[in-house]
Design a protein that fits this description.
It is built from twelve helices and ten strands. The chain is of the alpha/beta class. It has an eight-stranded parallel barrel with strand order 3-4-5-6-7-8-9-10, surrounded by four helices. The chain has a two-stranded antiparallel sheet with strand order 1-2. The two termini are about 30 Å apart. The mean pLDDT is about 95.
Length: about 325
């Protein structure tokens, strides 16, 4: 597993990050289940782990933290997020200093760790000034509770304002922006966010790099048992079908091209992201899925395959 730097920061992560959204703590709250997935990711060389305080109402953080206790803390990068609504009332969401400090303290308690490597402003908050947001996260850095901070799904206008505020006040900027991205969904390129991050020396990560399994071809012959669509009611998540309907032509072109060149969808989808320095955050509900995704990074793919995909704009 290769290590890559996040933007201009000194932090290195593995090319693949293991993410806990919709699986650990949501689909399954078994400690044994979580341990098996984390152990598999570790054995495959993954040293970057991503979660959030709203995944499984905090259960994802608790289970991930417990599973990681067997490993030396210095040997991995741990990321979590705040700002998403996690309760009723005005103090349980957003990017105010009051909410973020409370949410952060709850997160490190569940994760059973003294510090977080990367702490995300999970979504922007138009009711809080950029100065307050930047100072709050910088205060966490200065108190040695977090090492770096980051953003997720911020617009180019919001990122531009934030970066300008940080530069003006001499504050540390976020080191990465995490957005939804795959061959099927490339809005981070069309809306200028990727280009802005590159120009600012900010790293980029992709969640849903397989378009929630749609790019693997697993749905080509119907809805498989135990797939995300099949389990949509169980995990209270129904966006996968919508993603397919909104991006049907591009998904089908991708799958057909993979079939034409006899290349697995996993390999093509993940390498598509890595080639663009948009490093994938992968999820998995089974250990073998992790192994398959890691192995897919080593599949040799000819340049003519990439040229054909790039031509389909």
């Amino acid at each position: 597993m290769n290590y890559v730097r996040l933007g201009n920061s000194g932090l290195k992560i593995t090319e693949l990050t293991f993410g806990t959204a919709l699986t650990i703590g949501t689909e399954n709250s078994s400690e044994q289940y979580a341990q098996e997935l984390i152990d598999t990711a570790w054995d495959c060389g993954i040293r970057s782990f991503d979660t959030s305080n709203n995944y499984g109402n905090g259960e994802a953080e608790r289970l991930l933290g417990k599973a990681l206790t067997k490993y030396p803390r210095q040997d991995y990068v741990l990321s979590t997020k705040g700002s998403w609504p996690v309760g009723d009332g005005v103090y349980y969401s957003g990017l105010s200093r009051k909410h973020i400090l409370w949410a952060f303290n709850k997160s490190i308690e569940r994760l059973n760790t003294e510090y977080i490597d990367v702490y995300y402003a999970h979504r922007p908050d138009n009711e809080v000034t950029m100065e307050e947001v930047a100072r709050t996260f910088n205060n966490l850095i200065e108190s040695n509770k977090i090492l770096y901070w980051a953003t997720s799904e911020w617009s180019i206008e919001q990122l531009s304002e934030l970066y300008n505020v940080c530069d003006k006040l001499g504050l540390e900027k976020p080191i990465t922006e995490q957005f939804i991205y795959s061959y099927a969904i490339t809005k981070a390129e069309s809306n200028g966010v990727k280009e802005k991050c590159d120009s600012e020396g900010v790293g980029t990560l992709a969640f849903s790099p397989l378009a929630q399994g749609l790019l693997t071809g697993k749905y080509s012959n119907g809805i498989p048992e135990n797939s995300r669509i099949a389990k949509s009611k169980l995990i209270s998540y129904d966006k996968t079908q919508a993603i397919f309907e909104q991006n049907k032509a591009r998904i089908e072109f991708f799958i057909n091209t993979c079939n034409e060149y006899d290349i697995g969808g996993n390999a093509a989808a993940l390498q598509w992201c890595v080639r663009k320095s948009i490093f994938p955050v992968i999820g998995a509900s089974k250990p073998q899925q992790i192994r398959d995704n890691v192995e897919s990074l080593n599949v040799e793919i000819p340049d003519r395959f990439w040229s054909k995909l790039e031509a389909n704009v």
